[in-house]
Amino acid sequence: MHIFSKKEIDQAQSLVVVFSELSELDKAAAEIKEKADYDSELFTKKESLQLYRQALAAGGDLYLLRLDPDDRSNRKLQKTFNSLASAFLKNSASDLQFSFLTELSDEQKMQSLKAFLLALPAYNPHSTSGFKPDKDQKSDNKEDKEAAESTEAPASLAARLLAAAGELKLADGESEKTLKNMALIQESDLSDDMLTELIALSSSVYLGRELVNERANVMTPTELAAVAHLVGEQSGIEVEIFEPDGIRELGMEAFLNVAKGSDEEPRLIVMRYRGKPDSDKTLALVGKGMMYDSGGYGIKTTQGMYSMFGDMAGSAAVIPAIRALAETKAEVNVTVIVAACENMISGHAYRNGDIIGSMLGKTIEIFSTDAEGRLTLADAVTYAWQKEKVDYIVDIATLTGAVVVALGNLMTAALADDEQLWSALEKATGTSGDLVWRLPFHEEYAEQNKSDRADIRNTSGGVGAGTITAGHFVRAFTGNTPFLHLDIAGTAYSESASDRKPKGASGIGVELLYNLSKELFKE
Predict the structure, then answer these.
(1) CATH for the stretch 3-124+169-185
(2) Which among 491, 492, 440 is positioned nearest to 469, based on CA atoms?
(3) Where residue 126 falls among pLDDT bands split at 50, 70, 90?
(4) Which residue intervals of the chain bear CATH 3.40.630.10?
(5) Is residue 144 exposed (0-12), middle (13-18) or buried (19+ Cβ within 10 Å)?
(6) Does the domain spanning 229-520 belong to CATH 3.40.630.10?
(7) 350 near 343, Cβ under 8 Å?
(8) Listed residue (271, 169, 243, 268) closest to 213, CA to CA
């Protein structure tokens, strides 16, 4: 994606978007095409004609977009730009010219452009990378093998996904329109830093969406680790990948018990970015990496299992978030940790009623194998403070169905035992426009996780407050490190488009964690 300045707009097929200080998208703008005497509250007849002719001469269309000067919140911007994006996607491939005719700050301009970019990508349910794990590509046919060896090897799945983040197809699979040929042309140049942030955030959200939308037969723990490794190479982030032997040496028994039912090997992914070396603070972003969740022997229904390729949305938030921080050279110290595996059924799988160990040494009674995400998170957060010596832990996970019952698919649930972390999150939502609701985190809720046979039980057994008790389970492994838990089970994925997110993966958490990290490290 290239962002042109005003002096670079000698290009064909420009759409002109005009901003004004009125209330909403001008529904009558299309009438300019039909009657030249369109009388606009925004412009004189002469001005309207001039703008339309400018667009028509370039092979494009004119959209008059109105912004309320008293309500320029990011949520309102996003809803407004979704209307614009919907109209834009119906037109032929073209570049886009933004003309800001109001007094908007550079920050507001950047937020406006970002809101438009994040409204554009549409989920195509039939379009994935087409890649399969190597084990599914093996051929016993000698001729096939020779042909494969004689041709140039295709780019890896990780490389294709990262490339797609900067050149994502827009529409419904029928259009060839991409961010590459949809250049944003500004009336006045934004700073280089703001342009860098605009591109880094938008492409990172796209990457997060692509990771979740990719299906589980393709996006395995090994492939996710490959994506993290390539992100590290491209963005200057230190990456360490632990394979099963290394995970075993760390004593991650809870993580390995969940993983052992699958033929796909688990991976522990650790990414380190140090943008503020003079600070002794480090923030851990821990993302749930359940690449597929069948429920194990606590098996899910067909309907409940269908979208469980998206149960790794937490990992698809933290990996792109650290990428955006590194790309913008943010002055933060962040470590990302993902325990990636599958929860499957086999003769090797763990069972309801088992008592297992953990990296911390606590014993865990398994009431349900379908409460598996918190087991992997338990070892991941233990690793964060024991090995990485972090000062704050934020985890993000599609953890409970209870959060959907409580908040639906509009809000993300948050539980915090530290006011500094909660304050940083509140400020972060103001910039990203995400809706987050803080749930109570009283110690009494932790009593529901008590076990008669082990140190702790992995679920309270359906006695209510499931989102809160799940948060308390993870907190029991944080070693008193300041802790914030985000449950995105309701906001990570949708079977239908809404005002602020496309069909499929929403990309929730990428911008939120990016902003939270920067807020936490402000002097």
Answers:
(1) 3.40.220
(2) 440
(3) very low
(4) 229-520
(5) exposed
(6) yes
(7) no
(8) 169
Is the pLDDT reported for residue 38 higher than 80? no
The structure tokens listed for 35 are: 């009657």
Q: Which residues are catalytic?
A: 300, 374
Which amino acid makes up residue 495? E
Query: Residue 489's closest CA among 426, 391, 401?
Result: 401
Task: Band the pLDDT of 105: cuts 50, 70, 90.
Answer: confident
- The per-residue pLDDT for 495 is 84
- What pLDDT digit, counting tens, does each position of 322-379 carry? 999 999 999 999 999 999 999 999 999 999 999 999 999 999 999 999 999 999 999 9
- Comparing CA positions, the residue from 40, 38, 33 lying closest to residue 18 is 40
Element (H, E) at 435: none
* DSSP character string of 131-174: ---HHHH----HHHHHHHHHSPPPPPHHHHHHHHHHS-B-SSSS
Q: Dig out the tokens for 251 from the structure.
A: 């004593």
The pLDDT of residue 502: 77
Q: Please state, as a whole number, how many other Cβ atoms lie within 10 Å of the Cβ of residue 249.
A: 9
Interatomic CA distance for residues 151 and 168, integer angstroms: 26
Structure confidence by residue, pLDDT tens digits, 259-303: 999 999 999 999 999 999 999 999 999 999 999 999 999 999 999
Q: Where are the beta strands (DSSP E) in 417-500?
A: 436-438, 456-457, 483-487, 493-494
Strand-strand pairing, 3-4 and 184-185: parallel
Taking only the tens place, the pLDDT of each residue in 238-260 is 999 999 999 999 999 999 999 99
Q: Answer whether residue 315 shows pLDDT above 90.
A: yes
Q: 10 Å Cβ neighbour count for 247?
A: 23
d(CA 4, CA 19): 18
Gap between the Cα atoms of 174 and 117, Å rounded? 19
- Max CA-CA distance within the chain? 81
pLDDT at 432 (0 to 100): 86
Q: What is the pLDDT of residue 192?
A: 80
Quote the tokens at residue 6.
Answer: 């005003």
69 to 2, 21, 72, 486, 492: CA distances (angstroms): 29, 5, 6, 32, 31
Which strand ranges, in their side-by-side order, compose the sheet holding 392-397? 238-242, 267-274, 333-343, 283-293, 392-397, 483-487, 412-416, 436-438
CA atoms of 249 and 245, how far apart (whole Å): 6
Give residue 212's pLDDT.
94
pLDDT reported for residue 26: 40
Amino acid at 279: S
